[in-house]
Amino acid sequence: MSELALITGASSGIGRELAVVHAEHRGDLVLVARREARLADLADRLRGDHGVTVYVLDRDLSEPGAAAALVADLDRADLKPAILINNAGFGYWGRFHEQDLARNARMVRLNVTALMELTGLLLPRMVRHGRGRILNVGSTAGMVPGPRQSVYYATKAFVNSFSQALAAELQGTGVTVTVLCPGPTESEFAAAADLQDTRSFRGRRPSSREVAEYGYASMLRGKDLVVHGWQMKTLMYLGLRVAPRRAVIRVVERLQSKREAPVAPPSGERRRRG
Ligand SMILES: NC(=O)c1ccc[n+]([C@@H]2O[C@H](COP(=O)([O-])OP(=O)(O)OC[C@H]3O[C@@H](n4cnc5c(N)ncnc54)[C@H](OP(=O)(O)O)[C@@H]3O)[C@@H](O)[C@H]2O)c1
Asked: What CATH number corresponds to the domain at position 115?
C-alpha cells in the first residue's frame, strides 16, 4: 500500500506516532503542524527508514481559512489524500471566566472548525471514488462535561458526535470515519494545557505510540468510535451508563483539580518540631 495520508499535528505526540505507523505500512504522507523543523526531521527519518514520499506543510490551523488554503495547496500539487487524520488539538486548564477568551476561540477553530472544514473539503472526492478513510482524534473528554477544561471537553464532544454521525451517513459508500478516544496519554499535551499537576495526569499513562497503533488499526477495520485502554473502556461503557450525570461531573471536576501546595505549619509549631 502507498496510500497518501494527510496528518495534522504530526510534529509531536499521537500525530507523530500515527505518521510513523503509516510509514511502516509503506504509506506516503503529508505532515502538517506549525513547527516546521520537527516535521522536516521526521520526514527525513521516514524517507530514510521506509522509502516513503513525505511532504511537509507548516501551517497554523487555528487561523481562519487555514483548511481551505491547505487543500488549495494540495490541489495545486495534485496531491489527493486517501486517508485524512485530523489529530491536531490542544487543551487549556482553568475556570472559563478567568481564562483568555482569545485562546479558547483559537482552540475551537483548531479542534472543531479546522477538523470539520478539512473533512468537508476532502470527503466529497472520497465518496465519489468510493474509497477513503478518516480518523478523527476525539477524546474520552468528549463524553462528559469537564469543569476546569470546559471548552476543551466541549470541542471533543463535537468531534465524537460529528464523527459518529458521519460514520452512519457514509455506510455503504466505501468511506469510513473512525473517532479515536484516548484518555490521558504521554505526549506534550499536558504541558501545553497546563495540566501536569492535575489528578487526571498523575500515574502511568499509555505512550503516544500505543494509542497511535490502536487508533490506526481501528481505522483500518472501519470502526466508528473506539476508546483506548481497558480502564477507560470500563469507565466509559459502564461507569457513565450507571452513575448519575451530576456525580460524574463532580468526579471529573476532582480529576481536573490540582494537587494542593503543602500548607506550612505556623512558625511556633515549626520551632517545636525542629
Ligand atoms: N495526550 C492526551 O492525554 C490526549 C487525550 C485525549 C485526546 N488527545 C488528543 O490527541 C490529539 C493529539 O494530542 P497529543 O496528545 O499528541 O498532544 P501534543 O503532543 O501536544 O500534539 C499536538 C499536535 O497538534 C499540533 N498543533 C497544535 N496547535 C496547532 C495549530 N494551531 N496548527 C497546527 N497544528 C497544531 C502540534 O504541533 P505544533 O505545535 O508544531 O503546531 C502537535 O503536533 C489532540 O487532538 C488531543 O486533544 C490527547
From this structure: 3.40.50.720
Q: Give the list of residues 6+ apart from residue 43 with CB closer than 8 angstroms, or none.
A: 29, 31, 54, 55, 56
Note whether residue 157 is domain-resident. Answer: yes
pTM (global) more than 0.90: yes
Q: Which domain holds residue 144?
A: 4-259
> Is 35's C-beta closer than 6 angstroms to any atom of ligand 1?
yes
Q: Whose CA is nearest to atom 41 of ligand 1?
A: 34
Segment 103-156, tens digit of pLDDT: 999 999 999 999 999 999 999 999 999 999 999 999 999 999 999 999 999 999
The 3-state DSSP class for residue 2 equals: coil
Is residue 99 one of the residues assigned to a domain? yes
User: Is any ligand 1 atom within 6 A of the Cβ of residue 6?
Assistant: no
